[in-house]
Design brief:
Blueprint: H1 5-12, H2 36-60, E1 64-70, H3 77-84, E2 93-97, H4 103-106, H5 112-117, E3 124-128, H6 137-140, H7 146-165, E4 168-176, H8 179-191, H9 201-208, H10 210-224, E5 231-235, H11 239-257
Parallel strand pairs: 1-3, 1-4, 2-3, 4-5
Helix pairs in contact: 1-11, 2-11, 3-11
The protein binds adenosine monophosphate (AMP) and magnesium ion (MG).
Length: 274
Amino acid sequence: MTFEWKTIDSALRVEPGKPSKLSKRDTACDNLFADKREGEALAKANAKAIDRLQDALWAEGSRALLVVLQGIDTSGKDGTVRGVFNECGPLGVNVTAFGTPNEQELAHDYLWRVHKAVPRKGLIGIFNRSHYEDVLVVKVRGLVPADVIEQRYAQINAFERHLSENGTTILKFMLHISKDEQRKRLQARLEEPDKHWKFNPGDLEDRKLWTQFANAYETMLDRCSTEHAPWHVIPSDRKWQRNAAISSIVRGALETMMPLYPKARWKPGEFIIE
Ligand code: AMP
Ligand code: MG
């Protein structure tokens, strides 16, 4: 099994400046991985490699990686955290879930809570939802005027450029599932006792707005996939494909960053342990 992350990366990347054509993108893919067994083995090997690379990133202490996960309800954001970063030591990753803003957050600009949560140098930060909610749910539900939304795409690009110029590599993943797959997953939440807690009647309200959300996602991808913070659209109907794809791209990005362990500041033989 060879590790061809570049093939996976370029197949799923939204080229900056080009239309994302979201509706033409696959929610399941048959051409990237041979089969489920190979995909799972790849994800496992990637998870181990991500752990090793993060260790070096921490030792190096000068850069960070930010992974942004977006996707509609049931698209698998939590499952991705579990499936891709399960080999990482708890000290090395920092997961932040962004829900409905509280009173204090609403009293600030929408990037305030986000900037506070970005990873410190040496860490992998994971955003489960993100500032992109402010051009997705906020847009679809009309929570702020359209001209305010319109300004945000450029603001977000500038914010992400600022992070990247200050040592944070950014990867953004949209977990792409079909409407039919969402129905199955919501149904499972109604039927399986272990999943009842995940069911939220509000998700059905969002499902009714499927087309509006798809349009908002497409605009977000068209406007905010940049060289310094590219979007990838991940086929996510099958969890193993999702994990294999995302872990490959994350590993590839970390290998490209090439974090280095610092050289020892003492000479061999300088210290003797009694
Ligand atoms: P969940 O991720 O299922 O726990 O749900 C979090 C909820 O918070 C989702 O319904 C999001 O749409 C909502 N949410 C997250 N960020 C924002 C935001 N900036 N404005 C409004 N709602 C948000
Ligand atoms: Mg939810």
